[in-house]
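Tokens in:
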């Protein structure tokens, strides 16, 4: 494995994240942070990632090595034990560390169980942030940027600029907060401030107070040197009353400290020409293998093998955000001359509805609620179209992967979907969030599929689009430089 020489003109970057692929994941956050950190390390950034040591990490990490002696972390009135563990050496990738505290993280879930959040989530993630900050001098030297992700780590810039303010070591650290999903903000009672060791003075409208509650994400946005979200269009949406999840005034108030930077995908792992998980390899110049992948997909979902019947696929968490209501409320699933396959788990009502439809229409609808990465690779390789009718979608990764695999996205014109899909060129976009709006766009896609040369041209064009991290990583470097300049 080649060694990457660190570039002295790049700052050290420390990513603080509640999820990191493949060890802890509930959605796209884990893959986005892994993709960015890996690309940065390959480009010469001194890159470190810090993640809680969940039970899922203990079950899936190949080899963890203790890094240093146990240490204690002060969180409000409590002195808590912690220890760092490091993922086995990877000279070409980022340094990945896990913070151990069994009482907080050795649990069945990441955020909660049985559909309910853990009651002590504020305390759990405050501990994680304080432990990470305490270890920062050990893990990174020189100009350092702390890159926090979502509300779970938004307390890090709050601690930096409040209880740790005045310490020259911490005052010199630049901070960037990335909002991957503003629908989750960390709302807690006023008493939480004292429990976390934060002064009551932070509880005002200009900082952490939000409609009579503590809002952790809001606090992180206020105190971060730079804030980002995961697509340019979503940055615009967050500044509106309709799309800002109640924080639009905060996003507007950030002015030019806030920007949208599109996520990327791993173009090596997601390449149909070399993918070992799919039935046959293929490319834009030789797409013949996709026919075999389609037949394999139909067999796997127990559907009739019909080459000239279009397959619409959906790979997503089965939750309101992903547009299941307009899919189930429309007529397309039972009237369109097509097959529909679904992959993913989520809310019981959606799983039950899809299972019932699959049982009633076994020749046209298939559903698999046991998601795996390998199944998603095979689904995208075999699908003709990819459904992403999201209510909102900050960035989305699946539509980028789908295009690389020649699965034409059928998606709402929101967030990163609008930024990565060119309507009637590499996919089909629609605006109206309604069952009838969904049915209309499906009819447009069916018309395209009926014209084989036109569909093939769309597929080739989509497969040729570039969705790697090169451009976005350059924009993050600019954000880091600006954060350090603010110090």
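Residues out:
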């Amino acid at each position: 494995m080649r060694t990457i020489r660190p570039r002295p003109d790049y700052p050290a970057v420390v990513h603080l994240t509640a999820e990191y692929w493949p060890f802890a994941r509930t959605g796209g956050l884990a893959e986005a942070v892994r993709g960015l950190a890996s690309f940065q390390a390959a480009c010469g950034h001194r890159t470190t990632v810090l993640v809680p040591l969940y039970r899922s990490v203990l079950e899936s990490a190949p080899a963890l090595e203790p890094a240093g002696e146990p240490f204690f972390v002060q969180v409000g009135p409590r002195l808590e034990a912690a220890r760092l563990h490091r993922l086995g050496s990877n000279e070409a990738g980022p340094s990945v560390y896990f913070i151990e505290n069994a009482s907080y993280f050795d649990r069945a879930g990441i955020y909660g169980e049985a559909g309910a959040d853990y009651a002590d989530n504020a305390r759990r993630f405050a501990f994680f942030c304080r432990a990470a900050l305490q270890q920062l001098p050990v893990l990174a030297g020189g100009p350092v940027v702390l890159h926090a992700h979502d509300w779970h780590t938004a307390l890090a810039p709050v601690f930096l600029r409040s209880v740790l303010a005045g310490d020259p070591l911490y005052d010199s650290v630049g901070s960037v907060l990335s909002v991957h999903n503003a629908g989750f903000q960390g709302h807690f009672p006023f008493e939480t401030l004292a429990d976390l060791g934060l002064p009551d003075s932070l509880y005002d409208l200009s900082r952490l107070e939000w409609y009579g509650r503590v809002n952790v994400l809001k606090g992180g946005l206020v105190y971060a040197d730079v804030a980002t979200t995961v697509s340019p269009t979503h940055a615009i949406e967050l500044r509106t009353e309709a799309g800002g999840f109640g924080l639009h005034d905060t996003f507007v108030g950030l002015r030019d400290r806030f920007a949208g930077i599109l996520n990327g995908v791993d173009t090596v792992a997601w390449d149909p020409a070399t993918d070992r998980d799919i039935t046959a390899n293929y490319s834009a110049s030789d797409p013949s293998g996709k026919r075999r992948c389609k037949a394999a997909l139909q067999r796997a979902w127990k559907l009739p093998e019909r080459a000239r019947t279009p397959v619409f696929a959906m790979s997503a968490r089965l939750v309101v955000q992903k547009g299941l209501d307009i899919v189930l409320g429309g007529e397309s699933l039972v009237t369109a001359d097509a097959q529909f396959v679904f992959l993913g788990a989520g809310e019981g009502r959606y799983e039950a509805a899809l299972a019932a439809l699959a049982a009633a229409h076994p020749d046209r609808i298939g559903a698999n609620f046991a998601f795996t990465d390998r199944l998603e690779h095979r689904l995208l390789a075999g699908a003709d179209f990819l459904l992403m009718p999201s209510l909102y979608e900050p960035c989305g990764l699946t539509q980028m992967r789908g295009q690389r695999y020649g699965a034409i996205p059928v998606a709402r014109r929101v967030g990163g979907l609008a930024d990565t899909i060119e309507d009637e060129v590499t996919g089909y976009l629609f605006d109206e969030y309604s069952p009838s709006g969904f049915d209309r766009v499906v009819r447009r896609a069916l018309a395209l599929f009926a014209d084989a040369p036109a569909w093939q041209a769309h597929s080739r064009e989509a497969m040729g689009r570039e969705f790697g991290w090169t451009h976005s990583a350059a924009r993050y470097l600019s954000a880091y430089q600006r954060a350090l300049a603010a110090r």
